[in-house]
Predict the 3D structure of the following.
Amino acid sequence: MNYKENKQVLLTLFITMIMMVTTIFTFGQTTINPDTVCVNAIAEQYFVTNTPTSTYQWTITGGGGALQTGQGSNSITVDWGGVSGLYPNAVEIIESNANGCPGNPVLLDVYVLDLSGNPVGPFCPGDPTTPLVGSPAGGTWSGTGVVANTFQPSSAGVGNYVLTYSMAGCNTTINVVVNNGPVTGPIQHY
Amino acid sequence: MKRLLTILLLVLSFTSYSQCVSNQSSTIVPAGPYTSGQVVTVNYTLGTFTQLNVNWIIAFQINLGAGWTNLTPVIAPGNPGGSGGYWLWDLQNTYPSGLNFGPGWRFVNTGFNPDWGTASTGPFTMSFQVTVAQTCTADNLSISMNVFGDCLTGGWNNGACCTDPAYQIYNGNVQVVTPITSSINHY
């Protein structure tokens, strides 16, 4: 590749970077469809890029969702219900310009996520490593004695522990107990 | 054969242009296409009105598509060498012939008969403004001008009337602008 070709490649890369940065600053972030929220989440904020002369009509459907604030603006808050599941087109917005002409509806599916963790224990310090199971699968366990989504009583030691199962910003916990083992005295000879 | 065709074409040409209106021109500012709320100014000139069978010019009717609103006169036609009277801006008038006129300018003859037009043969220059209505559909924005002789309106009866087609000033539709909404984001 000669000097001229190198220059062309560098220029293309530079323009691409500028476009990426511009996009990031323009839209801030991009939410993957479906969006995921936790059961009973409150004050979840949804927004679109604002056009000052436009008005915005939001509709929340399913998931026990209720629009709390911001109707008419480009940003709202929503409280979600306690029933997990996928709710297609749960969030809808129709933007109207200054002439009152509506644009095409923009929709967002919402998955209301309810995490649970299977109880384990109680353990003794010498018990073997036990897998930790969360539902739905795919999350991450954390806490004292947790190693790679398993609980190691020997690592934790005696005590009461709260282990956390996390996924997509949602958490649930279980309590685990590691009890003292019996203390056996020396063998006596009558 | 060629000579016969030439004569035939001349006869057809004479028939086609045997009406009363000629040398029409117009300007429209700003130029289209248009969006809701835009105000445009239309200038129209009729160069010559030929008084076929002593038809006198009596009215200029402005024909607007459904996408226009707020029609406002700016400059009324002149009356060079014409009869006593004046051009009246009128939104609607039913002539003795039953012709439903309007909106536009119509000549009120104050000398002989109010239903006669004016003896002027032009030129007539006029101007008006009109606004694109608020709409979310691509409504019709056509503008045309009809020129009527007093034979059509029932003021004069002396043989064939002037039956000129409407002069097309503008053809188009409202350019509807709808918002393009970004995707929904969740903090």
Observations:
- Confidence is low (pLDDT under 50) at residues 1-5, 11-28 of chain A.
- Residues 25-113 of chain A form a domain with the Immunoglobulin-like fold (CATH 2.60.40.10).
- The interface with chain B takes residues 27-31, 33, 35, 37, 44-49, 51, 54, 91, 93-97, 99-104, 106-108 of chain A (CB under 8 Å).
- Residues 56 and 72 of chain A are 5 Å apart (CA to CA).
